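in:
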């Protein structure tokens, strides 16, 4: 008998005809995550097993906790000997050092040809335990120790409690999205929530030098690196927004500065998304949080493009968003005091119920198309990896 890591799929088991695609993608994502650790991964539709030397198991378990599509991670035990006498002995050996007063045995037979049915295995193993360990009893409703036995075609698994994992879908199974990544608290959380649903992300950041600093850009790269733990490498598109922002400031009535600015950002994001074959734009907007995030504002800003915009945090309050930011390690980076272009030139009284007709009228005062394409055509793209300072220019 040896230790082995058992992975439970959870939500993936509901996918019926597409189940194999989701599980294969999960296996590929796991293999990429564990590429520098010697191991063997094999699976069926019920379980995935990772076999490695015991010295690597803790590191593998830690890495798997960053992989979406896994419902539960269990450190279990495996044997090739399916004889019932061996099963009883192995279970007794495993639990002999555990402290408990009540227990139950739960047997599952993947191999229905096994000569003893599940209920009989439960009774035989439980009786053996009761005969060998004093002062304990069976409790099938609320046991302190739940002993799980899985009889498979060529092996038997034994396990107890596991670790709840991230759940969700394997990254890449639901297409690609472009995340509008600012230096704030919300957008990295929105990115994390999108990755959880199987969306592979690229990110886009608007900088406005000299009004925004190089430190603000580095802050966003650090946030992208945090998301890379879950997404894999993140391609970060950096748009110089200075000309557009200064043009808007000079020509647009101040109460509409934010609305027009956001419409321009959406136009740029939509074109970049189309070029990278992303199906959606994703951002961290939450209903009512700021003037540009009222329902009227969202509708008015969205009107500038046709591509769908996904807002994973639309119905979250700030406290809920901050809690997730703490959990994924982005909060302390997001609160660093470096302004992004969304927080500079903010008018005292921004319109909260903008009119689409006024937006169209005011946009005639600036050369929208030329401004948009000039910004896109000279934008920078870097790829951000997991490790500190490992990112490379690719455009």
């Amino acid at each position: 008998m040896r230790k082995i890591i058992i992975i439970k799929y959870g939500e993936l088991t509901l996918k019926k005809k597409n189940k194999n695609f989701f599980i294969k993608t999960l296996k590929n994502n796991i293999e990429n995550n564990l590429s520098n650790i010697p191991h063997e991964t094999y699976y069926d539709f019920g379980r995935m097993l990772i076999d490695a030397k015991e010295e690597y198991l803790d590191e593998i378990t830690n890495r798997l906790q960053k992989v979406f599509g896994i419902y539960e991670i269990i450190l279990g035990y495996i044997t090739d000997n399916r004889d019932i006498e061996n099963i009883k002995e192995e279970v007794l050996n495993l639990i002999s050092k555990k402290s408990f007063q009540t227990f139950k045995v739960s047997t599952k037979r993947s191999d229905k040809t096994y000569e003893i049915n599940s209920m009989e295995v439960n009774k035989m193993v439980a009786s053996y335990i009761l005969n060998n360990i004093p002062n304990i009893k069976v409790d099938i409703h609320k046991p302190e120790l739940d002993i799980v036995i899985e009889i498979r075609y060529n092996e038997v698994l034994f396990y107890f409690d596991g670790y709840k994992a991230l759940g969700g879908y394997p990254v890449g199974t639901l297409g690609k999205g472009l995340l509008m990544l600012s230096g704030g608290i919300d957008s990295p959380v929105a990115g994390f929530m999108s990755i959880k649903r199987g969306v592979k992300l690229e990110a886009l950041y608007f900088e406005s030098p000299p009004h925004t600093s190089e430190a603000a850009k580095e802050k966003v790269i650090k946030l992208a690196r945090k998301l890379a733990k879950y997404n894999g490498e993140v391609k970060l598109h950096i748009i110089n927004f200075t000309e557009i922002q200064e043009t808007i400031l000079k020509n647009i009535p101040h109460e509409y500065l934010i609305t027009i600015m956001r419409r321009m950002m959406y136009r740029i994001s939509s074109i970049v998304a189309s070029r990278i074959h992303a199906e959606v734009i994703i951002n961290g907007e939450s209903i009512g949080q700021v003037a540009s995030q009222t329902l009227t504002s969202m509708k008015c800003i969205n009107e500038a493009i046709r591509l769908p915009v996904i807002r994973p945090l639309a119905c979250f309050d700030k406290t809920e968003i901050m809690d997730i930011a703490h959990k994924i390690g982005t909060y302390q980076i997001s609160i660093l005091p470096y302004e992004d272009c969304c927080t500079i030139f903010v008018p005292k009284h921004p319109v909260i119920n903008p009119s689409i007709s006024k937006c169209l009228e005011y946009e005639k005062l600036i050369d929208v198309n030329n401004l948009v394409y000039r910004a896109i055509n000279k934008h920078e793209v870097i790829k951000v990896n997991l490790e500190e300072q490992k990112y490379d220019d690719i455009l």
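note: The radius of gyration is 27 Å.
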